[in-house]
Design goal:
Elements lengths: L7 E5 L12 H11 L4 E5 L1 H4 L2 H4 L9 E4 L2 E4 L1 H11 L8 H31 L6 H23 L11 H14 L8 H11 L2 H15 L3
Parallel strand pairs: 1-2
Antiparallel strand pairs: 1-3, 3-4
Bound molecules: S-(P-nitrobenzyl)glutathione.
S-(P-nitrobenzyl)glutathione (GTB) binds next to α2 and α4.
């Protein structure tokens, strides 16, 4: 019988987030911690990400990637889904509940994350552009439309649909990117939701592991 292989993921050698766990390896680390799957991490520089050796794993020259035996994956959502499919704990057994949890995974990445990233990118790279002052309010409005809708849907619930799932895991990581810019302040239930995610022991282990890369201190 073949021995199970320990998955290897890639992460930034020097993350621009300076250890805040905002890069997309964080969601993969968290998923692996939730299911109790040990993993290894290969750190890559920005230059190495664009080299052919890395592009074999990731066509767009980015992190994270995931290697497990013969399998190589890219796209954080696909990686989290793979982990959730292969292990208990991140997707419900009931078929309908499972389908709904997967819908929340897509919602996090396809509906909620894009306006948050568009705004972050403008703040990072367009500050000196003549259109910045006009564009920023429109970008922030788009973020608030989604956050308002999500806040209404979550209401007083702990998680998006019953028990914690991969949908919550992705949504919390997406919302953290908005939280660091103060965009969650108007939504106490979303702030509490993120805090609930961050309080999970698996989240904390994942966060600590990525922080060590920045501080160099275990
Ligand atoms: N859709 C892909 C996925 O979900 O896996 C997107 C992957 C992606 O954007 N990877 C980024 C990357 O490799 C890192 S996470 N960028 C390098 C490149 O494209 O050359 C994005 C990210 C970067 C920095 C911060 N930060 O400093 O706060 C947060 C998030």
């Amino acid at each position: 019988m073949a021995l199970p292989t320990t998955p290897t993921i890639t992460a930034f050698e020097r993350s621009p987030d300076r250890g805040r766990g905002l890069a997309r390896d964080m969601r993969v680390r968290w998923a692996l911690e939730e299911v109790g799957q040990p993993y290894e991490v290969r750190l890559v520089s920005f230059a190495a990400m664009k080299e052919p050796a890395h592009r074999v794993l990731h066509p767009f020259g980015q992190i994270p990637t995931y290697e497990e035996g013969d399998l190589a994956l890219f796209e954080s959502g696909a990686i989290v889904f793979h982990i959730a499919e292969r292990h208990q704990g991140l997707l419900p057994d009931d078929a309908n509940a499972r389908a709904r949890a997967i819908a929340w995974m897509f919602a996090a990445l396809n509906t909620v994350e894009p306006p948050i990233i568009d705004r972050s990118m403008a703040v990072l790279f367009e500050r000196d552009k003549p259109w910045y002052a006009d564009r920023l309010p429109a970008l922030e409005d788009s973020v608030h439309v989604r956050l308002g809708e999500l806040s209404s849907r979550l209401g007083n619930a702990d998680w998006l649909d019953g028990a914690f799932s991969a949908g919550d895991l992705l949504m919390v990581t997406v919302l953290r990117r908005a939280a660091v810019s103060g965009l969650l302040e108007k939504y106490p239930n979303l702030s509490a939701y993120v805090a609930r995610g961050e309080a999970r022991p698996a989240y904390q282990r994942a966060f600590d592991a990525q922080l060590v890369v920045f501080t160099g201190k275990p």
